[in-house]
Amino acid sequence: MKRKSWLFSAGLLLIASVAAAASVTVITQQAMLRQDKRFFAPVVTRVPYGESLHVLGSEGDWLRVYYQNRNGWIHTGEVKQQKITLSTLTAQGASGTAQDEVALAGKGFTPEVEEAFRKKNPSMQFNLVDKVESFRVSDKTIRAFLERGNLKEPGGA
What we know:
Shape: globular
Helix content: 25-40%
Strand content: 15-25%
Order of helices and strands: HEEEEEEEHHHHH
Radius of gyration: 21 Å
Mean pLDDT: 76
Distance between the termini: 53 Å
Number of helices: 6
CATH superfamily: SH3 Domains
Number of domains: 1
Number of strands: 7
Structural class: alpha+beta
Strand order of the largest sheet: 6-5-4-1-7
CATH topology: SH3 type barrels
Largest sheet: 5 strands, antiparallel
Low-confidence stretches: 12-20, 88-96
CATH class: Mainly Beta
């Protein structure tokens, strides 16, 4: 009987620890869940803005997370402890807010901040920034580039 009580208590403790485990929310348009804690490590899966990830552990600026039956590493710059929702924005009449604008706002870059920057830097060619942001390079191409150039990631990885 004592053994059953102990097992029951241990089970409850395990369930409580899983329920209380930390979770983070993706604050970029698309985050990369990677096989290792390196920026150019192979991608396990892509995680869209607003998705919640279960934190399994951390090392430096990297979190080991669980998402849709997959484990991997994500940089802390792509996630935030609290969940960002559109509900507060829609209540204020911003129902037409684009998802990418919300992602930028989550990082502190709002249309107002951009407008102020434009006024201070009138010669800045923002269309070129948009063009650069539109380029897509596959992970395979990036890895090949790094290998051909004998380039190493920060931290010697």
